[in-house]
Amino acid sequence: MTGGAGGWDGYVLAYHDANPGVTEDVLAAAVDSSGRTPYDWLLEAVPARAGVVVDLACGNGAVLRRRGRPAVGVDVSPGELARARRDSPTATLVRADATSLPLVAGAAGAVTVSMALMVMPAEAVLAEAARVVRAGGVLAATVPSRGTGAAGFAEILNDLGQAGAGYPEALSDPGALLGRAGFDLEEDATSSFLRPVAGPDEADLVVRSFYAPGAGEARRGAAAARLRARVAAGPVTLAYPIRRLTAVRRG
Q1: CA 129, CA 245: separation in Å to the nearest integer?
Q2: Model confidence, pTM
């Protein structure tokens, strides 16, 4: 994520400081038809030969741990980085804004962005990613897809007042966006990841993991209570449709 005092930037920074690691807590238990998590799927787009990988908006280090060294995690949230130091003690972590990276040009063989590009100023972030990745290097990003998911997913969005809401970056024309930054889009794919909700604590976690600016604690509490009731009545599985963008840096 990037910094910023107001709007989405301010909301997302405060949210992640208050809920460090919440994204991995939810998505690490979501798998596709091949048994892959969204993190596995993202990293499949990064060649083994890439060398140094820079993970933007690294959160608590979910991508870094799965990639292994050499990798650098960048985030602006003190809360996320504190948990990353605990969860990923061998990772190289940097507190910085993704639009102004303290890295030399061409330092990376790949840049990854997991479930964050839609709430970042994409044009500026991709331009900076293009600066730090070498020619022929890869950019791989995952973002939520507002495609058809399980009914329960839509119900949670509705309960939180987010059914018709979008993200700051719609990413409706990723080829043009990436092209302006110096990348050639190679893939725009979507896959569905299923996540069981096994009890009241997991119901609370799932609801807490949704971005819902303006919802307020009372509305979040009511949404969590409704999901807990559904879980108590029988098995609940949520489908997370996720989109993966893969691009190559032009020489």
Answers
A1: 14
A2: 0.94
C-beta of residue 11 within 8 angstroms of C-beta of residue 213: yes
Neighbours of 153 (CB within 10 A): 18
Sheet order of strands, 236-249 included: 92-95, 71-75, 53-56, 108-114, 133-144, 236-249, 183-197
- Residues contacting 152, CB < 8 A, separation 6+: 197, 227, 230, 236, 237, 238
Cα→Cα distances 242→49, 58, 70, 115, 116, Å: 25, 17, 26, 9, 12
> What tens digit of pLDDT does each residue of 152-197 get?
778 898 999 988 888 999 899 999 999 999 999 999 999 999 999 9
The Cα 249–Cα 184 span in angstroms is: 6
What percent of the chain shows pLDDT beyond 90? 84
Helix axes 200-208, 216-233, angle to 10 degrees: 140
Bridge partners (DSSP) of residue 183 are 249
What does the alpha-carbon distance between residue 228 and residue 192 come to, in Å, rounded to a whole number? 23
Q: Do the strands 236-249 and 183-197 form a parallel or antiparallel pair, or are they unpaired? A: antiparallel
Write the single-letter amino acid at 175.
G
Give whole-number Cα distances, 193 to 38, 149, 230, 244, in Å.
7, 9, 20, 13
pLDDT digits (tens, 9 = 90+) for 89-108: 888 999 999 999 999 999 99
**Quick one: which H or E segment has residue 62?**
helix 62-67
Dist. CA 157–CA 68, nearest whole Å = 35
CA atoms within 13 A on the CB side of 198: 6
Which domains does the chain carry?
7-146+168-192+241-249 (3.40.50.150)
